[in-house]
Structure prediction request, 470 residues.
Amino acid sequence: MDAIKHECGLFGVYGSVDAAEKVYYGLYSLQHRGEESAGIASTDGSDIVWHKGMGLVSSVFNLQDLKLLRNSAAIGHIRYSTVGRSERQNAQPFVAEYSKGPVAIAHNGQLVNAVSLRRSLKRSGAVFQTSSDSEAILHLMARPEYCENLPGLLGDLRGAFSLLILTPEELIAVRDPNGFRPLCIGKLKDGYAVASESCALDQVGAEYLREVSPGEIVHINKDGLRTETFAAAKPSYCIFELIYFSRPDSVVYGENVHLFRKRLGAKLAEECPVEADIVVPVPEGGNSAAIGYSQVSGIPLERGFVRNHYVGRTFILPRVEQRHQKAEIKLNAISSVVAGKRVIVVDDSIVRGTTSKSRFGLLRRAGAKEIHVRISCPPHRYPCYYGIDFQIREELIAAVRPLEEIPEFLEVDSLGYLSIEGLLSCTSPPKDYCVACFAGKYPVPAEVVKKVPADLEEWEEKAGEHIIVV
Ligand code: SF4
Prediction:
């Protein structure tokens, strides 16, 4: 696992007395999807109240906050910034008042036409309060041509957007026509829950019903569920959700994440065999694939690393030096296990390479005789424009170095990646997946600047000079 930021997590509840409390617990289960900020908005049927702040769910909310949010419908959001600065004003849900009354919105994903949307909204008088791409959706909702026409509004958005929208009357769940980010619905005893991942439904005792379909709008209100379709496209589910982001106990795109990763490991053992004494996973990301690798290769699985659970996920730190420092204190190698051994170390990805290098170095320092790295996904050669934080090609190690040179950079004896064909062979039909970061074929064209600034304002300024349509 390398230093990658995830995007966001969503959780919503309609029709339950303690909706905000359930959302709080749901967000806890989704904490792996973002650690920068958290927020909950709830409604009593007439107004919307909210609380949000920077940091983990546990530090943003106390009992008093939850008491104030106590209502029968609520939505929550945890955030990692891909577009927009990491600061409180960008924390979601965004809450506003427009001609139809109060509304709150939470977004997981990234709009690839955010620059042009913001520009045209600004030209027509909109004043933005944040540097987040998600705020444009709120401004569009307020426009006369869209305030009674949600499908029309959604048809103007491009890219990745799973949305939760809360009004005093209903909770609305939306998934973009490509279905880039997951979103599923569960049934509570007294209402409904909607979550980025099914592990959060389990947390609040909701029974998994189904995914929100790509291009679907689900209205949840006092009359139950009502659905409509706003656009149709060939789905392109983000396969990296299954490889890396989602929790192993979640069901995403109909696949259990742990079992999927085990299949990746098994395929990897077939494609990249090597003689060795033990198979060691990089925790937690490599755990499931290492089981699959060990089972197929017959090489015993061993615990070669110990993880310090009191350190947050490596990629929450925005500065590169901070990331490295944290990677070092997060893991330690067990010398008694690896010393003198030929070790196959299984991980889920290498994106930039720097964190991986320091991890494999721990094995060498602990006395491993040989280190053979096996990665349960193909090399990342292209940026992601759909909500994952690797948008600069020059930062991707497999884009800037020939594959045969990477083992030398990582200071390991060999390196093997799963092939794209091998990866797709592990998915269940109909295999409608986005693999753009591996293959470079983008399902939705993006407005891209050569170097993506942290801040959308700056991005807007530069966009005129540098827009490249991929
Ligand atoms: S480019 Fe990669 S990370 Fe981005 S949506 Fe596609 S598969 Fe996921």
